[in-house]
Amino acid sequence: MEVFDMKIKYNRTEIPDKLIIPTNTIFTKKRNGIYKARIVCRGDIQTPDTYNVIATESLNHNHIKIFLIANNRNMFMKTLDINHAFLYAKLEEEIYIPHPHDRRCVVKLNKALYGLKQSPKVWNDHLRQYLNSIGLEDNT
């Protein structure tokens, strides 16, 4: 729950006259024995007024060709995982959820959260903007 408070950057608010999207807390045990809790939104009940464009890119033929060429030439490839990735991306829509520590309180999200329909799209836009800012460009 620390990550929720540190990264999501929510605003406590009066109960709005809008949809309050319920959340679930998912508990898992990692291979190293550490327990993990993740707060996810119930995006399945989002209404169209709570999101704009949700389509995001996935691998296309050019991406697959790059991986095949690199593999064929025995080039070094590395993957990475960005912890709490969606929590870096800013939301433009007004999304309200119950506060995880006090269900009587409602908070307005400022950052994307797992489960929201638009989270993959806003994360992809955020990542692309960052990569462009350091001089990389998308050629595929």
Percentage of residues in helical conformation: 10-25%
Counting DSSP H or I runs of 4 or more residues, the number of helices is: 3
Largest sheet: spatial strand order: 1-5-4
What's the story with the biggest beta sheet? 3 strands, antiparallel
Integer-rounded radius of gyration: 18 Å
Distance between the termini: 38 Å
Share of residues in strands: 15-25%
Low-confidence stretches: none
Tell me, what's the shape? Answer: globular
Topology pattern, helix = H, strand = E: HEEEHEEH
Question: What structural category characterises the helix and strand content?
Answer: alpha+beta
Residue-averaged pLDDT? 87
Tell me the number of strands. 5
What's a quick, concise take on this entry?
The chain is of the alpha+beta class.
Explain this structure to me?
This protein is α+β, with helices and mostly antiparallel strands. The chain has a domain at 2-46 and 82-133. It has 3 helices and 5 strands; from the N terminus they run H-E-E-E-H-E-E-H. The strands form 2 sheets. Strands 1-5-4 form a 3-stranded antiparallel sheet, with helices on one face. The radius of gyration is 18 Å and the shape is globular.
